[in-house]
Amino acid sequence: MSDAWDARVRELATQGPRRHSDWDAELFETLVHDAAAALRAALHAEPRRDAVAGAWLKLAAEAVGLGQVDRASARYLLTGRGRVPESVTLMGRCLLQLAPAQLPAYPAEQAVALLARTWNLCEGLAAQPPWLNRYVASAAAEAPALEKLDEFLATTLAPALAPSRESTFSGPFTLAMLDTRKVMDEFLPGDMHLAAPSVLCVHDRRAEDVKVGLFLAPEGKARFLGLLPCLGTWTEGTPPTLELRPGAVRVNKRVATLPLLGTPHQTLAARSGYVVASAVDSQRLWVLDTP
Question: pTM, whole model, 2 decimals?
Answer without folding.
Answer: 0.74
